[in-house]
Amino acid sequence: MMEHETREKAKNAVKLILLSAGFEVEEVNEPLDLSAARDGECVAVLCSVDADTIADFDKTNYNLVVGEDQVPCKKLLFTLDNTIHAEHCIVWGVQEFVRLSGEATLARVLDRELSLTLTPGAGTRPAPDAAQVPEATESSGVNIPHLPVKVTKQNAERISGTQGVASLKFMPHWVYHYMSSGEQVYQERHIPFDSEGWGAINAINGLKLEIDPKSIDKGEIPGDAEVVGPKITKDEANLKVFGELVEQLTQHVRIKQVKGDTIFYEEKVMKPEKKNISIDIDLVHFPVWQVRGKKIIEVNAFTGEVLSQPMDEGCEIL
Questions:
Q1: Which among 210, 190, 188 has a CA at the least distance from the CA of 199?
Q2: 313 Cα distance to chain centroid
Q3: How many beta carbons lie within 10 A of that of residue 8, not counting itself?
Q4: Is the pLDDT at 129 greater than 60, yes or no?
Q5: Which residues does 288 contact at the CB level (< 8 Å), separation at least 6?
Q6: What angle do CA 62, 63, 64 make, to 5 degrees?
Q7: Does the structure show a pLDDT above 70 at 33?
Q8: Contact present, 230 and 130 (Cβ < 8 Å)
């Protein structure tokens, strides 16, 4: 059995993850540890390494009674034993737990809700064999902030629509978070400049993209992947973001003035002050499957989208 002190720590940590994802969480009697509910979704939670306890949990159905209705509960298992197989549970092992704990902490720091999808049957880890080992998952030992690979090599080659072999590259992007505040006053008109947001700039060609910061993984990348270095520097990206932000927040205000029998309209250009804008910017690599055939086709390994502009020419491989 998992030692009592360890189980209590595990239970509290899982509780924080679920709370960060918008669940209402309650402690329950053994053999379970927690129950959680969110928008009609119910989850029963067990923290254990005991095979018999886990087997009973896996085969037992749990329901949440809401009024006269019974809502079937998903089953979430956290275990330190990486040999455990639970067919009907979502299983969080050490890797899932470390990743989700970090994402939950970041969500709380940024005062955001953690994006967490609980799919029954996901996360189970049967003992691997040659047929079960996924493509391009051998660890490289390199830890860099990146978006995870969700599209397999085989699927990327199919999506590309061309005959060729795919290779995995991690392309550099400057991911930024900006905050603007302050206001300007002109003839009793208050012009606010409050704004906050996230974005990304391709560090090769300067194209802008949207990004969900919750998707960023800081773990190891696959061992057979190439890491591409940026051509656009951090300072250049910062200047670009600042310039576009000022342009975005700039307001043209038309002020009415009356002089005698004449009415004048004066247009003022109001811009935020530099001291009221803060920008945090970091390098994050996006995974791309590059399929080389008669032509080069690149497939976003995170979203599965075909990129309209290949990025391999002139890139620096690290």
A1: 210
A2: 28
A3: 13
A4: no
A5: 168, 169, 170, 171, 298, 299, 300, 301, 307, 311
A6: 135
A7: yes
A8: no
What CA–CA distances, in Å, run from 250 to 190, 193, 268, 273, 296? 13, 8, 10, 10, 41
Measured CA distances, 107 to 13, 104, 150, 246, 262 (Å): 14, 5, 22, 27, 56
Tell me the residue ranges of DSSP E strands in the chain.
24-27, 34-38, 41-47, 63-66, 69-78, 90-92, 139-143, 165-180, 183-186, 189-192, 195-202, 208-209, 220-222, 226-229, 251-259, 262-270, 277-292, 296-300, 316-317
Terminal alpha carbon distance of the chain = 46
pTM of the model: 0.52
Burial class (CB in 10 A: 0-12, 13-18, 19+), 23: buried
Write down the pLDDT at residue 82: 79
pLDDT band of 53, cuts 50, 70, 90: very high
- Tell me, what DSSP letter sits at residue 119? -
**What 3-state DSSP class applies to 166?**
strand
Radius of gyration of the CA atoms of the chain, in A = 26
Q: Rounded CA gap, 107 and 143, in Å?
A: 21
Query: Which residue carries 């009592």 as its tokens?
Result: 4
Count helices and strands (H / E) in the chain: 5, 19
Q: What's the pLDDT score for residue 126?
A: 37
CA distance 192 to 36: 41
Among the listed ranges 77-86, 88-97, 101-110, 256-265, which one has the minimum average pLDDT value? 256-265
Sign of CA dihedral 60, 65, 71, 76: negative
One-letter identity of residue 166 = A
49/46 Cα distance (integer angstroms) = 10
CA dist 245 and 120 (Å) reads: 43
